Amino acid sequence: MPTPTLSTAKASAPAKIILFGEHAVVYGEPAIAVPFNTLSAIAEAVPADRGSGLTIHARDLGMRLQLGSGALIEELDHALIYAAKLALDHLNAPVPDLHIEVSATIPLASGFGSGAATAAALIRALSAALGQPLEGDELNALVYEVEKMHHGTPSGIDNTVIVKNSPIYFIRGQEPQPFSVGKPLTFVIANTGIAASTKETVGAVSELIERDPATYKTIVEQIGSLVREAKALIEHGDVQGIGQLMNLNQRYLHSLTVSSSLLDSLVQTAIDAGAIGAKLSGGGRGGNMIALADTANAEQVAVSLQNAGAARTWITTLGS
Ligand code: MEV
Q1: Same structural domain for residues 196 and 153?
Q2: CA 15, CA 117: separation in Å to the nearest integer?
Q3: Whose CA is nearest to atom 2 of ligand 1?
Q4: Which residues are annotated as catalytic?
Q5: Residue 23 CA, ligand 1 centroid: distance in Å
Q6: How many domains does the chain have?
Q7: What spacing in Å lies between the alpha carbon of 50 and ligand 1's midpoint?
Q8: Which CATH number does the domain housing residue 295 bear?
Q9: Which residue of 9, 58, 162, 180 has the smallest Cβ count within 10 Å?
Q10: Binding site membership of 22 for ligand 1 (Cβ less than 6 Å)
Q11: Residue of 22, 112, 208 with the most ligand 1 atoms within 8 Å of its CB, for mutation
């Protein structure tokens, strides 16, 4: 393999929020997700000394990982090293002498897609430094492989919305569909501050379905129906209808055992503070929740959520 000329490269990838359909999407039902650009992962690649191999400094994890010269076997199991290896194999490139700094403002294991965003930013910076930038479907397929390491059986929604950086209506194994937003929607997002494993919550739902398919497969299908309806309401700008479907989606997620007492109480707090609808977002049992609010009331909803125990809140508008 020829040694490529290396250059400095910087890349990023956004966080994501699932508006409707998490968990059911693993079973082939549709889901709706949007990028959340307020939070992002950043990777910066700089050429290093000859023969030094590839070093990845994951600042937030306090870890320095190595591929090539001096690499430890256990480091090869790390998701970031795995992502780099996948990209190099895909490009048929030798291990380059590069140093890559990776950092993120995305809280880990919080339903914001930190794993997919970090892998996407890393592969973007690495491939750009090699002069062979990876984007689109090629990048998405590689990040999906890394997601499997994090989640076991991911639907592919996180990597797809993060790599595309646009709102998507997603069905597993199909080309994601864009959709229009009839009226701007203001969301208050609250992080519970509790890290939760998507692998575990996805596993818990899978066990329920195995144990009692008649009950739980039906819930999954009902979530699918409400997501189809939600897409139409988003396109028509029916804000009240969207809020009601969020509340219904939350009840189904609760039945799938992926809510938690804190998530339930934050959802109720948002509604009591005047939100039009609210639900957990992402894997659940921690992570984050979202509330749909009037623009004039969003700040009040955010303050109420903080007072009720949210670690952090954000306000974002879709379709503005
Ligand atoms: C996680 O962001 C979304 C889940 O539906 C898992 C997946 O789709 O792979 C819970």
Answers
A1: no
A2: 6
A3: 282
A4: 158
A5: 5
A6: 2
A7: 41
A8: 3.30.70.890
A9: 180
A10: yes
A11: 22
First vs last C-alpha separation in the chain:
48
Contact by Cβ (8 Å): 284, 204:
no
- Our answer on whether the CB atom of 154 is closer than 6 Å to any ligand 1 atom is yes
Together in a domain, 152 and 62: yes
Closest by CA to 86, choosing from 46, 146, 45, is: 146
**Residue 283 CB–ligand 1 contact under 6 Å:** yes
CA-based angle 292:297:300, to the nearest 5? 100
- pTM, whole model, 2 decimals? 0.95
* Ligand 1 lined by 99 (C-beta under 6 Å): no
Please give the residue range of the domain that contains residue 298. 181-318
* Each residue's pLDDT expressed in tens, for the chain with a length of 320 residues: 556 689 999 999 999 999 999 999 999 999 999 999 999 999 999 999 999 999 999 988 888 999 876 666 556 678 999 999 999 999 999 999 999 999 999 998 889 999 999 999 999 999 999 999 999 999 999 999 999 988 888 999 999 999 999 999 999 999 999 899 999 999 999 999 999 999 999 999 999 999 999 999 999 999 999 999 999 999 999 999 999 999 999 999 999 999 999 999 999 999 999 999 999 999 999 999 999 999 999 999 999 999 999 999 999 999 97
